[in-house]
Amino acid sequence: MINTITDVLGWSFMLAGSAFFVTAALGLLRFPDLYSRLHAVTKTDTLGLGLLALGLALLDPSWRSCLILLLVWMLVMASGAVNCQLLARFNLEQEEGRHGGDGHQTGESDDA
Amino acid sequence: MTPELLPDLTLSLLLLIMAWGALYAPQRSDAMTLFIAFGVVVALIWARLDAPDLALAEAAIGAGLTGVLLMHAARALPDELHQDYRTASYWGALGFTVVASLMFLVHLLYDDSLFNAGLLDTESDLTPRLRTLADAAVPESGVEHPVTAVLLNFRAWDTLLELLVLLFALGGLRQLFPSGQSDDSATTASWPESMTLMSAWTRVLAPLLVVTGGYLLWRGSSAPGGAFQAGSLLAAAAVILRLTGLLPPLRWSSLWLRLSVVAGALFFLAVAAATAIWGDGWLTYPGAYSGLLIISIEIFATLSIAITLSLLVIGEQEDLRS
User: Fold this and answer.
1) Which of B43, B78, B88, B191 is the most exposed place for a label (fewest CB within 10 A)?
2) Which residues cross the membrane (chain A) (predicted)?
């Protein structure tokens, strides 16, 4: 009985997580500019991956795999947040440089 | 038709689309991004094919380091080369993708008949036989993981030559830089302000990479991992530290650097020569010491691979010629 409850819970968490990834993809395609796209991707990635990890942890509830999943989630969450800030700040600096004359002339286009 | 076929087919189709995009995207930056995604998909496919060693190596080298190499190279290009470098014949490429997918599907559907006709009987009897042979010999190899046993014992000669290939690649790269003193003006790029965040994040990431690399190296004897995977992770750490300016130039004039570059190949060659002269033959390890020898070779090889890969990816005038 316990098994079936955790199974159902685990699978529904994973389904909900996947739904977040679908919305992230939708936002990436439909939102107008870099900032709102970044918002869509990073926020839903964090939550979606968290739900996936939670669901997987419920399906395989051993200490080892739970800890590994938690670490993976934390690493992806941190790198997602940092990369979002990096892309956004870099883009902002470039826009300011373009509008305000000779700001920082970096001339890079490899931020993809 | 098993349920597992669905993700596999999706991955295969994704791979073809990525390959097409990487070749024919009109913007260079798009093509580079798609090439990195292509590497990630290849890594996933290796993982699905039950080859985690290859998946790790592909993710670290094919997607990670090659991606940095491409972007680093693109930054150095003059601006006029950035735009529209190709007005591709999309239809030819699309046709190629469609034909390739169709051939794959046909192969999948008529699998058995092709095998029966004797056209594609390569893997059906070859792979299991090699696998049984390798698995039977693993206990004598000195390590528990069959891939490591093959790479560093049964086919150690191949791995030694791979290390020499890396060495030759670095030698070739050095020829691209003129000798003499470097001019500092070319190498001091003006970083954007957002770089402070990047360097802060690098300070967190680099120790993690070093720990993971060491873990992969140590784990290599009993589980997926090993010198190439560990070396590429260490190289990744060196590359991000160097790119954010936290690491001084890896000066070629330093004896330690040159020693580290050749350490793997030198130690491997020394072991090979020693076994040839005093032992049972070229690269035939004495049974009792084979485990120790393999892990020592891997440690030296990791060092060489890490330094060589980082020089190959971010080596500049001041790294390679001063």
Assistant:
1) B78
2) 12-32, 67-88
Distance (Å, rounded) from C-alpha B157 to C-alpha B163?
A: 10
What residue in B sits closest to A92 (Cα-Cα)?
B194
Shortest Cα distance, chain A CAs vs residue B109, angstroms: 31
Sorted by where each begins, the domain ranges of chain B are 1-120, 132-181+191-322
Q: Which domain holds residue A36?
A: 2-99
Nearest to B98 by CA among B8, B26, B20: B20
pLDDT at B86 over 70: no
A60-69, B7-16, B77-86, B231-240 — which one is most confidently predicted on average? Answer: B231-240
Contact A85 B194 (CB under 8 A): yes
The predicted structure's pLDDT at residue B59: 92
- The domain tally of chain A equals 1
Q: Which helix (H) or strand (E) holds A19?
A: helix A2-30
Task: State the Cα–Cα distance between residues B82 and B112, nearest whole angstrom.
Answer: 49
The span from the CA of A68 to the CA of B224, in Å, is: 17
What residues of A are in contact with residue B79 (Cβ under 8 Å)?
107
Task: Mark yes or no for CB contact B190/A106 under 8 Å.
Answer: yes
- By CB atoms closer than 10 A (0-12, 13-18, 19+), residue B184 is exposed
